[in-house]
Structures are given as C-alpha cells and as structure tokens.
Known about the structure:
SH3 type barrels, 7% helix, mainly beta
Amino acid sequence: MSDEHFELWDQPAYERGDKVVSLKDVRNDGTYPGAAMGEFLIRKGEVGYVTQVGTYLNRFYVYAIDFIESERLVGMRAHELQPAEETPAAERIAS
C-alpha cells in the first residue's frame, strides 16, 4: 500500500474566477505554441485568474490561469500559485 497523497482526494485549492499570483517564473518547455523553447511565459509575481480546473494523471489538479498582463493562458499547479489578497481563495486556503 502506498502512502502517496493524491490531490484529487481533496477539493481543488482554487475555483474558476479566483485571482492568483505566480510564485515562480515559467518558461516554455516546448509545449506552448507560438513561443520559443526556453522563452519566459510568465514572471514571478504576475497576477492572473483561474479560468478552468482540470486534472493531470488522475492525481493532480491543474489550473488554467489567464495572465492578463502577458496575455497568456498557462496551466499551473497549486504549489506554483498563491491567492491574491482578500479573495475567496485566500480565505479557503487560510482555513
């Protein structure tokens, strides 16, 4: 029996419409169309909004984040994000 934790056992950390902040720079790993491999897609601290909540490998939540400033839609995991202040996501994560 494995003691691995599957994120899907819990509710998603974020919901559609939540305002979030990127905790890291994100570079194109070759899967983002129209950008060169290695090009910065998102910079740490950039603000975006959750547009969709999906899953990966039936284990993890992946959040589609619309980063307004850079005009990019990027998939990110919860540990790569933090809620923007005074949002429902911040209240859910704090409790």
